[in-house]
């Protein structure tokens, strides 16, 4: 197997004018992260520097993506889609579990005990979440009376802001897309 190295550049930003529908923006993010998990799986066992760098990039990308969903997308679904509470609570819970694993990975280095397995399980959890999100939540978004272009632009702008910041020390903070009064 050939050694792959993690890309030194950040994942491609969504700036294509054709990708302004929020579902397209989120789908693009999902594809980007799936590609990073695949790249990780192709790295040589002893290529610790590349593994470490790519795992940190994955965690950052997932953090930004989850944050925009929790701040912008999920509240919009909760507000506009009837009977969405259970589905959105499940999405929040999946985000929370993913963040717990991200928090552990962010405190580790490649080569640490269980590092590879944690990255692998993170990929599996994210893949499961993406499948449900693209089927169920995207369907709710499309069916709701929402301006998907406007939501997409909000997501792109917020991602730009968050991408410039460093990750918080505690990634495992509570996750909820419920309005503050319903927490």
CATH superfamily: nmb1532 protein domain like
Total count of helical runs of at least 4 residues: 5
Q: And the CATH topology?
A: Four Helix Bundle (Hemerythrin (Met), subunit A)
The share of residues in extended strands comes to under 5%
The dominant shape is elongated
CATH architecture annotation name = Up-down Bundle
Question: Can you identify the CATH class?
Answer: Mainly Alpha
Regions with pLDDT < 50 over 5+ consecutive residues? Answer: 1-15
Largest sheet: none
**How many strands?**
0
Rounded to an integer, what's the Rg over CA atoms?
17 Å
Distance between the termini: 49 Å
Report mean pLDDT, rounded to a whole number.
Answer: 87
Please provide the ordered H/E string of secondary-structure elements.
Answer: HHHHH
Give the helix/strand class.
mainly alpha
How many structural domains are formed by the residues? 1
Helical proportion, percent range: 55-70%
Blueprint (SSEs and pairs):
Layout lengths: L21 H21 L5 H33 L4 H22 L8 H29 L4 H16 L20
Helix pairs in contact: 1-2, 1-4, 1-5, 2-3, 2-4, 2-5, 3-4
Describe the structure.
By secondary structure, this protein is mainly α. The protein has one domain (22-171): Up-down Bundle (Four Helix Bundle (Hemerythrin (Met), subunit A)). It contains 5 helices and no strands. The longest helix is centred in the middle third of the chain and has 33 residues, at 48-80. The chain is elongated.
Labels describing this entry:
disordered N terminus; 183 residues; 5 helices; Four Helix Bundle (Hemerythrin (Met), subunit A); 66% helix; single chain
């Amino acid at each position: 197997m050939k050694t792959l190295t993690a890309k030194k550049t950040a994942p491609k930003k969504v700036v294509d004018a054709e990708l302004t529908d929020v579902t397209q923006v989120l789908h693009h993010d999902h594809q980007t992260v799936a590609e990073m998990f695949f790249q990780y799986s192709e790295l040589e066992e002893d290529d610790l520097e590349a593994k470490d760098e790519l795992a940190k990039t994955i965690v950052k990308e997932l953090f930004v993506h989850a944050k925009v969903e929790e701040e912008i997308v999920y509240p919009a679904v909760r507000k506009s889609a009837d009977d969405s509470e259970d589905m959105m609570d499940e999405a929040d819970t999946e985000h929370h579990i993913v963040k717990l694993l991200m928090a552990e990975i962010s405190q580790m280095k490649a080569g640490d005990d269980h590092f590879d397995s944690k990255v692998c399980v993170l990929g599996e959890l994210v893949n499961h979440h993406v499948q449900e999100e693209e089927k169920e939540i995207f369907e709710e978004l499309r069916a709701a009376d929402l301006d998907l272009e406007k939501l997409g632009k909000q997501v792109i702008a917020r991602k730009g802001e968050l991408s410039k910041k460093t990750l918080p020390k505690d990634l495992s903070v509570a996750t909820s897309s419920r309005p503050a009064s319903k927490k």
